[in-house]
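---------- Forwarded message ----------

FYI, see the Uncoupling protein record below. Original note from H. follows.
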Amino acid sequence: MTSRDLKLMSPWFQLVCNSWDIMAHGWSRTRSLISQRGQQTDKGPDWITFQEKVSSFLHLPQSVLTATTMADLNPRIEISFLETFICSAFAACFAELCTVPLDTAKVRLQLQRKIPTGDGDNLPKYRGSLGTLSTIAREEGISGLWKGVIAGLHRQCIYGGLRIGLYEPVKTFLVGSDFIGDIPLYQKILAALLTGAIAIIVANPTDLVKVRLQSEGKLPAGVPRRYAGAVDAYFTIVKMEGVSALWTGLGPNIARNAIVNAAELASYDQIKETIMKIPGFGDSVLTHLLASLAAGFFAVCIGSPVDVVKSRMMGDSTYRNTIDCFIKTMKTEGIMAFYKGFLPNFTRLGTWNVVMFLTLEQVKKVFLREGLLD
């Protein structure tokens, strides 16, 4: 390129730079006006002057510029199913990354059986949430706390995206698209039950692999692990046990996830709706925090028994079916066995719900073109 070419192109570069300067200044000024007045407007004198400058500069009708710019500024009312799926999957995966150690501790406590000793006492290997975490870290290293994280992310990407992404469409289908007013709680519960069941039917193989990887503790020297990793686990299970084995424990898993999903989504939806009606509260981070904590508590209280059965069915192949697992656990360990790992489960699920719902609400605002942390 010669110096003559550069001289010829210089005015065009200047023109582009000037147009960007004008539009950037106008955008900044418009956002400032909107922020000050608390509403979108195109009637202010500064905004009209800016429009006239840009329309004259770009040789566009002012009406076209007004419609285009204001369409970009106005927040959207709702987002599509695909966008909701993406938001939900991202939020669920982020929450999973933050809480995998707590989930590993929960699974170990649920799978633990009473170990008889010579003097007739029963000595459990894992004691409490913190004790389980420290035991795993001491015997298997810090990485032992993150066993099954890849399968967990696989699960949340599919299960989390589907159960939350389908919730609003199913809820609307149940009440009808022309419904006006607050949706009844029982309709929310039914919608969450359905979406939880549908989602886990698709994601059950990922849940199975996650539990099997998490259930492996410290092995004796020279004893190889069953699976080298998540991908190897999928192929090994199919090769050794058949494709249908990937859906082992599907019955209790459907029951558990449908119930927990109903406890989580329906309670979060209902509590958030109730809190927002209290003077001084709105669709804020505090509202999301309170609603998500309550949702986690309800989920653990209601879903813990089926969660224990599900974990044992997936982690131990000696049980014939769900009823057999339930009866044997009840006979040998009593009713409290179904609430083993309750504290770590609540710690994990409460934390998981807070992280997931807060992340979900903020990520959705990106698609809705709203400000974050509002």
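H. also flagged this: The chain is about 70% helix and 0% strand.
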